[in-house]
Specification:
This protein is mainly α. 68% of the residues lie in helices and 1% in strands.
């Protein structure tokens, strides 16, 4: 008998670094990523369909792929001031390199000019440049207000996005709980009543016989499983829409393969292409080509399907059951489902608004223009006054002011592949586990 893999071995097998590299042909086939597969959603009757749905939603490989697509956040110690203060990672350093080097070369250039050409014989020129500090310093007051507002609004956008992601988790959690209880309760109550009733008359016998002829549990579970699978796809579709369309080293084929593996066997290949690709060719086939016609928003594809399934759930025919819901109960159930789905529309719409609406161009360009103007003039006058000794201090102070703008940019659109951005893959994993837990309790 082969030994079971250790937890450490399983963790390394499903680690972020190796998840995609270890995607063998067998896994691709299981995830229906090979071209020979035609459908990823087979109809399985009875309890096996429920078990298969739970296994698909909670597939360790699929969940590992969702977690692997996120860049892990930096776990700094919130109670330690010295935690990670010397770390470059996570500071949006790529945005700072160019202006910092430009300012450093600017300061070195002026100091060389003062030393080589503007010597003691022209000391009055150097003194006049140093005296410009009195005119430059007042610029810092409006810049401080501009930078404070900039970072404050960026932080608000970040937390609005995080709030919307949390609302998505909350509503998906409550929605699947409502569906599993509200939809299956008439079946369970009918079964319990049939066991407790003892027919005493012909009419009672007929009613008992009518209850005994109810055999729609399989159809109900199949409809419930389809709803659960599409609900698990929703956060993945939102993640695909919010994240950048391109990433270093990704071709369209690789991009489709990765995203298809994240969905796995939840839905069919045809439905998956509609969820993954936003554009259509002239022939009406889904594509990644941005020059084609933009035909759909993938999250709306999922929500529209959930609305259709919600209608079918609310109007399901419990044939032969004495516990069949009344028309009023069905209307209330459908209204509750649609209200929750509409909240998902709102959460997705809020994140879409944050992604597509940056800070107004006039504000951003005005801030950056006068920030750089102030820094260049301030560096020039400081070097004129203090010489070489000013350069290291100026470098740190330049970094401090430019870092505020860089931090604001990092928070403004928190949907990129950066350690400061939202881990949307883990959000999808949390929702999948919540859905799987509800279905597991139903299967007991």
């Amino acid at each position: 008998m082969a030994a079971l893999p250790s937890k450490r071995g399983m963790a390394s097998d499903f680690s972020r670094r190796t998840t995609w590299a270890n995607m063998s042909a067998r896994r691709a086939s299981r995830g229906r990523l090979d071209s020979s597969s035609s459908s990823t959603s087979s109809v399985i009757d009875g309890p096996a369909g429920l078990d298969a749905t739970i296994e698909t939603i909670l597939s360790p490989e699929r969940l590992a792929a969702l977690e692997a697509v996120d860049v892990p956040a930096i776990p700094y110690n919130t109670y330690s001031i010295f935690s990670y203060i010397f770390s470059i990672r996570g500071r949006n350093a790529g945005m700072l390199v160019s202006p910092l080097l430009s300012l450093l070369l600017w300061g070195v250039g002026w100091q060389l000019l003062f030393v080589l050409w503007l010597d003691d014989r022209n000391s009055d020129v150097r003194e006049q440049i140093a005296a410009l500090d009195d005119l430059i310093t007042p610029l810092l007051i409006p810049l401080s207000f501009l930078l404070t507002f900039r970072l404050g609004r960026a932080a608000v956008r970040f937390w609005d996005a995080r709030r919307s992601a949390g609302k998505m988790v909350e509503i998906c959690r409550s929605n699947i709980a409502m569906v599993t209880v509200g939809f299956t309760s008439p079946i369970e109550l009918g079964n319990e009543r049939r066991k407790l009733q003892r027919p005493q008359s012909i009419d009672d016998k007929r009613e008992d016989q009518c209850d005994g002829e109810y055999h729609d549990r399989e159809d109900a579970l199949e409809l419930l499983c389809e709803y659960a699978r599409w609900l698990a796809v929703f956060p993945i579709a939102v993640k695909h829409f919010l994240r950048p369309a391109t990433r270093k080293g990704w071709t369209n084929e690789v991009r489709y393969k990765k995203r298809r593996f994240e969905i796995g066997e939840l839905i069919s290949d045809e439905d998956a292409r509609m969820v993954i690709m936003e554009y259509d060719t002239v022939d009406g086939k889904p594509t990644f080509d941005p020059t084609a016609v933009r035909a759909r928003d993938p999250p709306l594809v999922v929500l529209n399907r959930l609305h259709k399934l919600a209608y079918r759930l609310a109007h399901f025919e419990y044939e032969g059951s004495s516990c069949s819901p009344t028309p009023q109960s069905r209307a209330i159930f459908y209204q509750q489902l649609t209200d929750q789905l509409n909240i998902l529309f709102g959460a997705y719409g809020a994140m879409e608004r944050i992604k597509l609406t940056p800070l107004p161009f006039a504000y951003a360009i005005h801030l950056r223009t006068f920030l750089l103007l102030y820094l260049f003039l301030w560096n020039m006058s400081s070097v004129a006054a203090l010489g070489w000794v000013a350069l290291p201090f100026l470098f740190l102070l330049n970094w401090a002011l430019l870092g505020i703008e860089a931090a604001a940019v990092e928070c403004e659109k928190p949907f990129q592949y950066n350690p400061n951005h939202l881990t949307l893959g883990k959000v999808s994993v949390v929702i999948a586990r919540n859905i799987g837990q509800c279905l597991r309790e139903l299967a007991r």
